[in-house]
Specification:
Strand content: 15-25%
Radius of gyration: 25 Å
CATH class of the largest domain: Alpha Beta
Distance between the termini: 65 Å
Number of domains: 2
Shape: elongated
Helix content: 40-55%
Largest sheet: 8 strands, mixed
CATH topology of the largest domain: Rossmann fold
CATH architecture of the largest domain: 3-Layer(aba) Sandwich
Order of helices and strands: HEHEEHHHEHEHEEEHEHEHHE
């Protein structure tokens, strides 16, 4: 496709075969994909959250453009390409201008304003943000649009409570192992993990409202028939009775698929919650930190690999056993 020169009077006419030339209509078909893609090139401080929100807004504002992400690619330091397929005759200059106007405005938002904006959006924002982060960590990353993924994005909500009046738990390590397991899994882009620490009662229902999670994981202390232990406004322990907990989760039962109560003596709550939630895991006695962490590691590694809750539960118990900890029978699975 180069012009003839004195040095090269017969340049390659067709890229895949220098013996052929384009027949009628072939050149148009060859170059058409180049013109039917929107290239959004970021060269100053890539912000995955701003990219996710801006692109989703663009797709919503221009549904006739039929925007479909076909590629993401990191290009050097702090440079990133997002390429989207468009419908024919789409004004890509207009789309690019609108996208970057929104992108720059969102980047300038304060963290609190940005969190509020994200909370108003659905899980597709988190999915695209995760995809961009993955692309930035790899030399080249190609992805389908969120709508074309094999499975919908699932949100895992981690609620952690360790009041100052209770012995210290290794909650940070547990959360870190859960996140690491998700990152290693082949379907990590299908999960969005959200966290709330030092949770009070109002933090629990607000997080359920904000994130609409499919999996809820509680790390902390249980007190058997008396309930679960959260925190009050001063960081001291506050007991939440089983009846109230069940009534709360019943309100969100249409969203929640599984609850993991990684807390001592939480089988009572698991059995009660299973009246409304398909799968609930609790502990039938006290469980040591290390066993709780091992169970969570195995469970979420399986979940993020596309396995069922029942399989993930069995693997979590087996990981405890493989580590030589005699507590693999402590987690119990209750089904609705």
């Amino acid at each position: 496709m180069r012009l003839p020169t004195k040095e090269n009077p017969d340049p390659l006419r067709k890229p895949d075969n220098n013996k052929e030339v384009f027949k009628d209509g072939e050149f148009g078909d060859f170059i058409k994909p180049i013109f039917d893609t929107l290239d959004l090139y970021h060269n100053q401080g890539v912000d995955p959250r701003a990219i996710a929100i801006s692109f989703k807004q663009l797709a919503e504002n221009h549904s006739d453009a039929e925007l479909e992400i076909v590629a993401m690619e990191k290009r050097g330091e702090n440079k990133f390409l997002l390429r989207a397929k468009t419908s024919p005759n789409t004004d890509k200059s207009l789309l690019s201008q609108e996208y970057f106007e929104n992108y720059n405005q969102i980047k300038a938002l304060k963290e609190q304003e940005l969190q509020r904006l994200i909370a108003e959006k659905d899980n597709r924002i988190r999915s695209l943000e995760n995809m961009v982060n993955t692309a930035l960590q790899r030399p080249s990353f190609y992805a389908q649009t969120v709508e074309q993924k094999n499975s919908p994005i699932k949100t895992i909500l981690i609620l952690a409570s360790n009041p100052k009046t209770t012995p210290s738990l290794r909650l940070d390590e547990e959360v870190r192992e859960i996140e690491a397991g998700l990152q290693r899994a082949k379907k990590r882009e299908s999960f969005d993990i959200r966290q709330r620490r030092a949770v009070r009662v109002q933090d629990v229902y607000q997080a359920l409202l904000d994130f609409k999670p499919q999996i809820v994981h509680f790390s902390g202390y249980g007190s058997g028939d008396d309930g679960l232990i959260l925190e009050d406004e001063t960081g001291n322990d506050r007991l939440v009775e089983t009846v109230g907990l069940v009534s709360l989760f019943e309100l969100f039962a249409s969203d929640i698929e599984c609850v993991v109560l990684n807390a001592c003596f939480s089988e009572v709550q698991a059995l009660a919650l299973a009246q409304h939630i398909p799968y609930v895991i609790g502990m039938n006695k006290a469980i040591a930190d290390q066993a709780a962490i091992k169970f969570a590691t195995g469970f979420y590694s399986a979940i993020a690999s596309g396995e069922s809750v029942e399989f993930a539960y069995k693997l979590g118990c087996n990981v405890i056993q493989l580590d030589g900890i005699a507590e693999h029978l402590t987690p119990v699975l209750k089904k609705r």
